[in-house]
Amino acid sequence: MKHCLVYIGLLLAGVVTAQDTQVQYLSGTGSDHTVDWQFYCTGGRNAGKWTTIAVPSCWELQGFGKYDYGFSKDTARGKEQGLYKYSFTVPAGWKEKKVNIVFEGAMTDATVKINGRSAGATHEGAFYAFKYDISKLLKYGKENLLEVTVAKHSANASVNAAERKADFWLFGGIFRPVFLEALPQQHISQYWLDAKADGSFAAKVQLQGDADKITTQVYDAAGKPFGSTYTGEVKAGAKEVWVKQQYQQPLLWTAETPHLYSVVFSLSKNGKTIHKVSQRFGFRTVEVKLRDGMYVNGVKVKMKGVNRHSFWPSTGRTTSKQLSIEDVLLMKDMNMNAVRMSHYPPDGHFLDVCDSLGLFVMDELAGWHGNYDTRTGTKLVQEMLEHDAHHPSIIFWANGNEGGHNLELDTLFTHWDIQQRPVIHPWQTFSGFETQHYRDFNYGIGEFENGHNMVMPTEFLHGMYDGGHGAGLDDYWEHMWHNPLSAGGFLWDFADEGVVRTDKNGIIDTDENHGPDGIVGPHHEKEGSYFTIKEVWSPVHMERREITPAFDGRFMIENRYFYTNINQCRFAWKLKTPGIQQQLTGTAVAPDIAPGAKGTLAIPLPQSWQQYDVLYLTAYGPDNKEIFTWSYPIALPEQVAVRKVDTTGAGPITLVEYDSTFLVTANTVEFIFNKRTGLIQAVSNGKGKQLLSNGPIVQQGVTNFSGFTWKQEGGNVVIRSKFDRKSSYNTLEWTIYPSGWIKMKLHYFPGDYFTDFIGVNFSFPEKEIKAVEYLGKGPYRVWKNRLKGGALDIWHKDYNNSETGEVPFVYPEFKGYHANMYWTKFITTGQPFTVVSATEDVFLRLFTPLVKDDPKDTWKNLQYVFPGGDISFMQGISGVGTKTQKRETTGPQGMKNIMYDYEKEPLRALEMILYFDFRGE
Questions:
Q1: Residue 332 falls within a domain, yes or no?
Q2: Does 727 share its domain with 805?
Q3: Do 572 and 467 reside in the same domain of the chain?
Q4: What separation, in Å, do the N-terminal and C-terminal C-alpha atoms of the chain show?
Q5: CATH at residue 228
Q6: Whole-number mean pLDDT of the chain?
Q7: In the sheet that 293-296 helps form, which strands lie side by side, from edge to edge?
Q8: Reaction catalysed (predicted)?
Q9: List of residues 6+ apart from 129 with CB closer than 8 A
Q10: Do 177 and 191 share a domain, yes or no?
Q11: What is the three-state SS of 849-891?
Q12: Is pLDDT at 129 greater than 90 in this prediction?
C-alpha cells in the first residue's frame, strides 16, 4: 500500500463517524515505518539521478548528499536540495470536505506542489508542523501527484542562523511524517486548553464555517464520562468560542502522577453533529513566584532534568514513538523528572510519552547563538504552540538558546498560550530565572545563597568524555536541594550524538569531540554516570549508614518526592555473601513519610544477619520500578581476608640472601625482593613466571624504604624495613607464609598536604591482561567526585581499551579506578594471580585510560590524573573535570585529597595491608 487511511476523533465509544477528522498518511509514521517516494538529490552522493527514498528520513542516512556538522565551513552545502515525488489517491467522498496536507517537519525549506500547482508559499524552518489547504488542487477518486522540493539550507538567513549554524549535526529531508486531513467545511480548526488543579476548565475553540452549538464532554483514563456535559451556543459567524466548566476533585497531572483525561468537542448545526475532535490533557496549574520558586499544583518543584535532541544513529533526526518511549523510560529510570527540548521542538509522540509517563518539559524554539527574524519567528512560534500547547507535560517555553533569543517574540508565547506558562531564555537571566550555563560550583552556589533570582541552569555538568554528568553532581545537587531559590537544572545531555556514516562503511561519527556527549551512548549504552545520577537523584534519599554489630535494622530516610508519600513505595532487602548462592530475602513496610519530611525505615532482619557479608536494600516506586539498590557492607575487608587467605602449609620456607636480593621460596613460589628497596623484582612458581613486579612504589609520596632485615616468626619469614624519621619514614614489611601467600604491610606518608592521589603502584605489561574478577563496588570505574552509583558484589570485567564517548562504546570501561576493593583475581595470558585487601576503602587502579592528555580537549579541563605504573592500590584518587570545569571547580569532592593529619610519626602514617597469591590458582 502506498498510503493508509485512519480516523482521529472520538474513539472512546469504539465508533468512528463521518464527523471525525479523517487522516490519510502519505509517508510512514516514523523511522520504524516508512514509505518509499521518488527522490532526486542535487548534490553530494548519488546526486543527479531519480531513485527512491524512505519517507520520513534524513537523506544523508539514506545514502544521499553530504554529512555536515554545524561548525562546517563548507559553503557548497547550501546548494544541496532534495526533490520528492509521490502519487496518491483520495476518496471521492472527500470532495465536499476541506483537505489539508500536513508536514510534521522538513529540513529546511519546503516548496510544495499538488498536480503541478503550488500549494502555497515556501515554508522556512525545519522543526515545525505546517499545512496547506489543497482542497481545490486535488483530483478526487483519481491519482494525484505530490511534488516537494526541500532545500537543506534556507533561503532565509535568520533560519540558517537559528537552525543551521549550530552545535549539532545538520541533516536534510522530510524527516517527520506527512499526511492528509479531511475535515467538514464547518469544523473545529484549533483549540487551546487550560485545565487547572482546582478543577476549572477553559478552552478557546476556533471555528471555520457555520455552527450553532458546541458540546464538551471530558472522559477519564478508563473512558468513562467525567463531570457533566457542557453545551454552549455558537453565535452566527463566530470564529471562536470559549468553553468553561468546573470539575470536582480531578486527579492531577504531575511528573510523579501523570493522570490524563480526554476532552471531546462536538460541533453541531440544526441538531446534527458536523465535527468532533478529541484531545488528551491533564489538570494542573503552573505558577512562578518571583524570588521563590516554580510551583506546579501549588507545590514547589525542582528540575532533575536533562537536555535531549531528537536523534538516532542510523536515522538522524527521524525517530519513532518506540524510541521516544525508550528515551523517557531511561530518563525516568535515572530518577529524572524533567527534560529540555534542546534546541528545537521534538516529535509530537515524544511529548505524548512525556504526558503519559510523566516528565516536566521545557519546549524550545530553535535558536543556537542566532535567532529567527521577527516575521519568520512569529509564524514559527504560532506553529510550535498550535502543535504542542495542549501537552500538560510542558511547563516552560524557551525562546532560543545561548543568545539566540529574539526578544520581540516573547509576547507571542503569552499571546497564544492561554495557560500563560513561563518563557525562559536559556543562558540568560530572564523572567525571574537565572539560567547561566556551566557555572563552576563556587559561583553557582554563591548565586544560590546570595542572589535574588531563581537559579536553574538549563545546561550544567557537560558530559564530555567520562565524569561530566555524574562528577560533581552530588555536590551540586545537595546545594540545589537545600537552597530555596534553586529550581534545579538540566544536564547536558542525554545521548551521544554519533551518526552512522553511510559514506564511511557505517562507522559511528561524533565529529571528533563536537557531537553532544551523553549519559548514554548512541544506541543507549549506559555510562558510569547513569548510575551515579540514579543514586544522587533518588527520591528516596538514604541517610548515610554504617552497618555494625549494633545495627538494629533502621535507616533514616528523607522523602525527596514532591507529591508522593513514601508509603506508596515498597522496599525489599537481601542478605548475601558474594560468591555463595545461599541468601536471605525479605520486605519492609514502607513508612508514612510525607514529601520533604524525614522518617525511619525498619528492616525486620533475622538473627543470623551477621553471617552474611552484604545487605542490599532496594526501593521501588509507586509504578513498581526500581528507584535504586543500595549495598551496605556487613563484613569488612579484614574479615573477608581472613577467610580467603591461606597462611598455612606443610613445607618449610627457604630464604637465600645475596648481595642485592632476597630469594624466598614457599610452596614452589619463588620471590625475589630487592634487598635495598624491598620491592618485588620477580615472582615465579612451578608453572612459570608471574609478571607483577616493581612494587610497591609510593604515589604521591617518596619510596624510601630501607634497612631491610629478615627473620623467621612462627614458621613464616618476615622481611622488614627500618623506620627513620628523616630518611626512611615510610616502612614496608613482607610476610611470606608456607602456603605461598605473602602479605604486604605498608606504613607511608603523603608527599604533601594536598595530593592528587595516594597509594602504591606495581608494574604489569598491559598486553598480558585478559580480565579481572573482583569483589568491590562496580562494575563501573569511579572518580573522587563520582563515587556513587555502584554496587558491592563480585564483578567480572574483560579487558577493553574503551574510552567514554568514543567508538566502540563498550561499557563498562576496563581501565581506571575501581572502588572498595576486597579482592581481585587478575586473569592473564599466562597464570592468574590474586590480591586481597585487609584495608578498608582501597581503590583498585587498572592501567591508564586513553584520554590522559588528549589534544582534542581544547578546553583543557578534562584532567585525567593517574599515578605511574600499571596496577595500583590507592587510598586516595583524583577527581575528573568536565568540558567546561576543571575537577576542582566541580565542588569539594573534585578537590585534591587533604592530608593535614599525617605527620612523619609511625602512629600517624597511612596503613595498607594487602595479600598476594602467586600460586597460579
A1: yes
A2: no
A3: no
A4: 65
A5: 2.60.40.10
A6: 94
A7: 286-289, 293-296, 299-301
A8: Hydrolysis of terminal non-reducing beta-D-galactose residues in beta-D-galactosides
A9: 102, 103, 104, 105, 176, 348, 383, 386, 387
A10: no
A11: CCCCCCCCCCCCCCCCCCCCCCEEEEEECCCCCCCCCCHHHCC
A12: yes
Given the DSSP bridges, would you call strands 178-183 and 109-114 parallel, antiparallel or unpaired? unpaired
- In tens, the pLDDT along 225-256 reads 999 999 999 999 899 999 999 999 999 999 99
Give per-residue pLDDT as tens, 287-324. 999 999 999 999 999 999 999 999 999 999 999 999 99
The residue among 633, 663, 698 that closes a domain is: 633
Which residues, at least 6 apart from 217, have a Cβ–Cβ distance to it below 8 Å? 225, 229, 230, 263, 264, 266
Compute the distance between CA of residue 835 and CA of residue 916 in angstroms, rounded to an integer.
5
State pLDDT tens for residues 39-82: 999 999 999 999 999 999 999 999 999 999 987 655 445 589 99
Tens digits of per-residue pLDDT, 404-428?
999 999 999 999 999 999 999 999 9
User: Residue 528, exposed/middle/buried by CB under 10 A (0-12, 13-18, 19+)?
Assistant: buried
User: 3-state SS of the chain: helix, strand, coil percent to 5?
Assistant: 15, 40, 45
| Grid cell locating 270 | 440544526
Q: Are residues 396 and 440 in the same domain?
A: yes
Local confidence band at 4 (pLDDT 50, 70, 90 cut-offs):
very low
Residues 485 and 358 in one domain: yes
Angle, helices 528-536/473-482, rounded to nearest 10 degrees: 20
Q: What pLDDT was estimated at residue 851?
A: 64
Taking only the tens place, the pLDDT of each residue in 779-800 is 999 999 999 999 999 999 999 9
- Count structural domains, the chain: 6
Output the nine-digit C-alpha cell for 368. 543556537
Q: How many CA atoms lie within 13 A of 495 on its CB side?
A: 25
> Which of 246, 281, 316 is a domain's end point?
281
Rg, the chain, Cα only: 33
From CA 738, how far away is CA 653, in angstroms rounded?
Answer: 6
Q: Is residue 430 in a domain?
A: yes
Q: CA dihedral in degrees (349, 350, 352, 354; nearest 10)?
A: 170
Contact at 8 Å (CB) between 323 and 31?
yes
Grid cell digits, residue 712: 623467621
Q: Scanning the structure block, which residue is given the C-alpha cell 595470558?
A: 829
96 and 207 assigned to the same domain? no
Percent of all residues in the chain with a pLDDT value above 90, rounded to a whole number? 88
Statement: residue 349 has pLDDT above 90: yes
Please report whether residue 497 resides in a domain. Answer: yes
Structure pTM? 0.95
In this prediction, residue 859 carries a pLDDT of 66
CATH number where 403 lies: 3.20.20.80
Q: Where are the alpha helices (DSSP H) in 507-612?
A: 528-536
Name the phi and psi angles at 838, rounded to 5.
Answer: -105, 10
Examine the domain organization and report whether 726 and 798 are in the same domain. no
Same domain, 318 and 396: yes
Q: Report pLDDT for 904.
A: 62
**Is residue 379 a part of any domain in this protein?**
yes
* Other beta carbons less than 10 A from residue 133's beta carbon: 13
Assign 327 a pLDDT band (cuts: 50, 70, 90).
very high
The DSSP result for 59-90, as a single string, is: GGGGT-B--EETT---GGGGG-EEEEEEEEE-
Q: Quote the domain boundaries for residue 655.
A: 644-753
Cell of 374: 521577527
The span from the CA of 563 to the CA of 637, in Å, is: 41
